Structure formats: structure tokens, C-alpha cells
Amino acid sequence: MMMSPVISQEDIYRTLEQVMDPEIPVLSVIDLGMITDVEVTGPNSAHIKMVPTFAACPAISYIKDNIRTVVENALGIAVTVEIDKQVHWESNRMTAAAKEKLKNFGIAPPQTVEGEMQPEIMLNTPCPHCGSEHTYLRSPFGSTLCRAIHYCKSCGQVFEQFKPLE
Amino acid sequence: MINNAALTDLIVKMADDELIQGHRNSEWTGLGPMMEEDIAFSSMAQDKIGHAWALYRILHENLEGEDPDRFAFVRPESAFKCSHLVEMPNGAYDFSLIRHFLFDHAETVRYESLRDSSFEPFQQLSKKLKGELKYHTLHANAFIMQLSRANEESYARMQTALNETIALAAGIFEPAAVYEDLLIDEKVYPGEKELYHRWLDRIYPILVKASLNLPDMDSITPEFGGRKGFHTTHLGPLLKEMGEVFNLDTEASW
Lengths: 166, 254
What we know:
Chain B: One of its GO terms (biological process) is phenylacetate catabolic process. The structure holds two protein chains of two kinds. Chain A is α/β, with parallel strands linked by helices. Chain A contains three helices and seven strands, in the order H-E-E-H-E-H-E-E-E-E. In chain A, the strands form two sheets. A four-stranded mixed β-sheet of chain A has the order 4-7-6-5. In chain A, strands 1-2-3 form a three-stranded mixed β-sheet, covered by helices on one side. The N and C termini of chain A lie far apart (53 Å).
């Protein structure tokens, strides 16, 4: 007789590590701190809550569908995904490991926000290519809503940063 | 229990401002004076349309409003409650930049005030938008400062644009026709008059740093009317263009 597998919360979290952000493919939804709750609702079902990074993020329905299909296919259960309205995403939700991956990918990670965010936090953002802090903010808007453009005076390269957000 | 009609009136005017200003910002896509500005106005367009969508969704989910897409694209012009400021064509970059500066600071004080709103969805929304708006005003302040300090021509153009835009911007703070006191009493928001003063307190120090003179506010007549559905000749063509694709088939699932 086949025992039906019992899916645990940990199994789901582990699977979610495989769900990548479509715009930054080295970061998973776990790395980004987008998952706010995982609940095993029955032997073959689960409910996942998530938050978007930026309010108008165009990738959000894509990510939502992706979470559902990846977990459903990997674990063979039925999954519902809901946007969590009670939790507010801030860049401090991103894990330290995620920031390291981001830097290695060539995007400067967000600085840790302490208290109210001041625009000065964007000054002298370390360059992900050469590490120099001899940089300036060229535009608070980049190729996606969550990125800013900086310039490094040491290595002469333009680079992007995942913006800090409170 | 807060009056639904009063809440709806407030949400519609806020959302329509966001949608129309977002559309105007999007018209800079491909036309910005330099690449970073092209990207900045396009990104802010995306943010503002996102804010409009969030507000239309609050109407839909909490106040029995229509589907957000239909509400945005199928309404007649007279049902729009946006201010005249956002309806204006982009004009030269100086006008667009001053409008962005005046509008985004107004937006910031408005959403900040909603942190304490008695209407719970406003509290959530204001938390979400606070950090995003910081980037909009950071951008506006930086460019106002740079152009005002660059040379005589750019300084003169910024001052002229400010003089010509200020009455329109003051029109953002047109009180609701019947619901104003009710919304204030119910602590939904502090009211337009209060927001107007907070806005002046916010823009004044930046204008001083940029050596720009704020016109005498007692001598200007704010351009009201938008909140009551009376619009400039610029809104009609904008709505027609904005809804062009959606209206090809209003029943389609986009």
C-alpha cells in the first residue's frame, strides 16, 4: 500500500527557494522576503501568502502564478496564493545571503534602513564591480521600479542598485 | 460607520489625479531630454498608475465600486474628478518638472496624513506608498535644485514655470462639495485646507534653497472645478487616447 506523502511547511519553504524573481533570476521569493506565511491546509493542499516589493510591480501576477505552479508540480498538492495586505514589504526583509547574491550578480544591494529612510542613504553606495565608495547617485529610477542608477568614479562604470525601501 | 458616498468621492478624486498624472508622465517615454529622465518619468508613470489601481481596487473591494479597469476606461469625462493641473499637456520640460515637483509633494503630504486615517485600507496604502514617494520627491527636488542653479536661462525658465503652474497646483486642494466636514469629523483625513498648508510648508524650504520665489499665495486664485466634474479642454482627448485599446472591446479579458 502506498502511503500518501505528508507535506510539511518546511517542504514548501524549500520548494519556494526554487521560485526565482523574473527580473533578478538569482534571487528567490524567499531571498527577497516576499513570502509572509505558509500554511498546510490539508493532506494535499496549502495556502501561501506573499507581498509585492513595489505597489505597481508589473511582475506580481506572474510571480504569483509561478509560486502556485512550481509548488504544485514539485509537491503534487493544490496551492492557493494570496497577496497579504497586512504585511508591508521593506528592503530590510531581504536576507543577508540575498544581498551577497545580488552583489555577485552585479547589482548593488540595498543598504539597511534604520528608522525613517533619508535620501542620503543613497550616497556613496559601494560599487558592486570594484567595491569603491567613490560613487554618486545618477538617478533614483532604473530599468525596473526597484532599481536606481549610480556611477562609480573609481572604475568609471555605471551600475544599478536594488533601492532601499522602508 | 463612515459615509460611503463621502469616502467614494475622496477616493475617486485621488485616484483620478494619479491616473491622469501617470498618463501624462508616460507621454515622456521615448521623449525625455536625456535617458535617465526618460526612464524616471516612465517609472513614475508606472508608480502613479499603480497607485490609481490600488485606489480603484479599494473602491471595488470595500465600497461596492465597479471593476477597476472599467472604472478607469469607460466613464464619461464628467464623472472624472481629477484636478486641472494633471490634465494639462506636458508642454516643455520645465512645466512638466515643476508640475511633478508640486504634485508629488502634494501627494506625499496627502498619503502621510492617511497613516492615521479612520478608514483602515488608507492606513495600509499609505504605508506602502510612503517609501516609493520618497524617490519621486528626491528626484523632483534634485532637478529643481540643479536647473535653478545652472545658468540664467534655466533659472528664469524654472521661475516662469512656477509662476504659471502655482494656481493650477493650488487647485489640487479643492474641498469636496458636500462631504468635506464629514470626512474631517470622521477622521478619514484632515481636509483639503489643512493639506494645503502642510504642502506649502513642505515646498517652501526647497524653493528657498533653489532661490525660487513662491508667488504670493493670497493673490492667486486656485483653479477649482475638476473635483466637481468640470474639466479643461485637454481631458477629453486624453481620455479618448487612454481608453482607445480597452474600448475596442470592453468585454474582453485583457
